[in-house]
């Protein structure tokens, strides 16, 4: 599969990790401005703190930084904090926006000394631009090609020292020559519920929302380990509490609100449960091929594979095997169903062959 064509989360998913315009506006207001205010990611935060303090003491530009991890964990926020900690401006762009080496040359040539260039989805940058970036990161210069054919001339263009902050959800897709040029690499982990509770309390204070400890814990437990999703759920629960209660978010109010929005106690939404329901009820727990499963839930194959499956696998509700997708005992338990004697081991026909339901 071409990752450039991978689907984003469907826009109506409350627990989707992609950010829409509303999320971007709210995130801008809720983002911490300093490293000390950043919640979670303790290891990355401490290591990055050392890198930035050392650079400031040397009065030098900070090393290039690569941040990897799932969407919504704070990579953009950390890039802005890096710029703030270094008292430098920040330029924000993305890999898909740089399709030609000339696009990158135009951006690099306009940078000022010490400026931070944040390059989101860096793994989706075009190959010619990648190759130009190698020299820019290492030697702070690029060669601009003027003309075509035998008469083409390479004109070296000196660049001021700058800090590149690359963000990627697919670190394995970065070519080694590019990955090796980053002076610091940090991997962003999913958040523990206790950390998400701190995020929710902080956001509630900034949004002027009244919430108790149990209400924050209820939202955190359904946030799939992702601060962006936690903030989104908080806003929807706030709406429910404002319209149907006294405005205070308690555990009961949070649970009732998220039931309305079809987000269950483990953070699964309608699409997630539809995949599990089809796997369990129609195919006896599997194994079943991905295409067959996608047809059963009325979605595209890529949507099931890239949007629903990662969280189901991480939660231990679904397993990918050479013979197809298989439900785990936890999936049967979560939907309140009793597995058949050979659940997950045979096809519904009981022959033990994948046949129609194979990969």
From TrEMBL:
This is Holliday junction branch migration complex subunit RuvB. Belongs to the RuvB family. SMART domains: AAA. Its EC number is 3.6.4.-. It is found in: Cytoplasm. It catalyses: ATP + H2O = ADP + phosphate + H(+). Residues 346-359 have a biased composition (Gly residues). It is an enzyme of class 3 (hydrolase). One of its GO terms (biological process) is DNA recombination. Homohexamer. Forms an RuvA(8)-RuvB(12)-Holliday junction (HJ) complex. HJ DNA is sandwiched between 2 RuvA tetramers; dsDNA enters through RuvA and exits via RuvB. An RuvB hexamer assembles on each DNA strand where it exits the tetramer. Each RuvB hexamer is contacted by two RuvA subunits (via domain III) on 2 adjacent RuvB subunits; this complex drives branch migration. In the full resolvosome a probable DNA-RuvA(4)-RuvB(12)-RuvC(2) complex forms which resolves the HJ. The lineage of its organism: Bacteria, Bacillati, Actinomycetota, Actinomycetes, Kitasatosporales. DNA binds at residues 301, 320, 325. It comes from Actinacidiphila yanglinensis. Pfam families: AAA_lid_4, RuvB_N, WHD_RuvB. NCBIfam families: PRK00080.1 (NF000868), ruvB (TIGR00635).
């Amino acid at each position: 599969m071409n990752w450039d064509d991978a689907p984003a989360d469907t826009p109506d998913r409350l627990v989707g990790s992609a950010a829409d315009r509303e999320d971007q506006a709210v995130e801008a207001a809720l983002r911490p401005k300093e490293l000390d205010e950043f919640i979670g990611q303790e290891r990355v935060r401490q290591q990055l703190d050392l890198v930035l303090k050392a650079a400031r003491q040397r009065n030098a530009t900070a090393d290039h930084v690569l941040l990897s991890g799932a969407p919504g964990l704070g990579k953009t926020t950390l890039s802005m904090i890096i710029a703030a900690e270094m008292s430098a401006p920040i330029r924000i762009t993305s890999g898909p926006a740089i399709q030609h080496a000339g696009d990158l040359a135009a951006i690099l040539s306009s940078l000022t000394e010490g400026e931070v260039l944040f390059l989101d989805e860096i793994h989706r940058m075009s190959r010619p631009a990648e190759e130009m970036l190698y020299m820019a990161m290492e030697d702070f210069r690029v060669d601009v090609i003027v003309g075509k054919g035998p008469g083409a001339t390479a004109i070296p263009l000196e660049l001021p020292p700058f800090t590149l902050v690359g963000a990627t959800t697919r670190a394995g897709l970065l070519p080694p020559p590019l990955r090796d040029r980053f002076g610091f690499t940090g991997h962003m982990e999913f958040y523990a519920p206790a950390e998400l509770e701190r995020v929710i309390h902080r956001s509630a204070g900034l949004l002027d929302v009244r919430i108790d400890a149990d209400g924050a814990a209820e939202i955190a437990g359904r946030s799939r380990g992702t601060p962006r999703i936690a903030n989104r759920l908080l806003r929807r629960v706030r709406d429910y509490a404002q319209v149907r209660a006294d405005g205070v978010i308690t555990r009961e109010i949070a649970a009732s609100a998220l039931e309305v929005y079809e987000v269950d106690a483990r953070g699964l939404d309608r699409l997630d449960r539809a995949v599990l329901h089809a796997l369990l009820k129609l195919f006896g727990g599997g194994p079943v091929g991905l295409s067959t499963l996608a047809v059963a839930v009325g979605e595209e194959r890529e949507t099931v594979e890239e949007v629903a499956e990662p969280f189901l696998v991480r939660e231990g509700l679904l397993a990918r095997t050479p013979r197809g997708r298989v439900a785990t005992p936890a999936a049967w338990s979560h939907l309140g169903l009793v597995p058949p004697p050979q659940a997950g081991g045979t096809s519904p026909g009981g022959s033990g062959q994948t046949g129609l339901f194979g990969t």
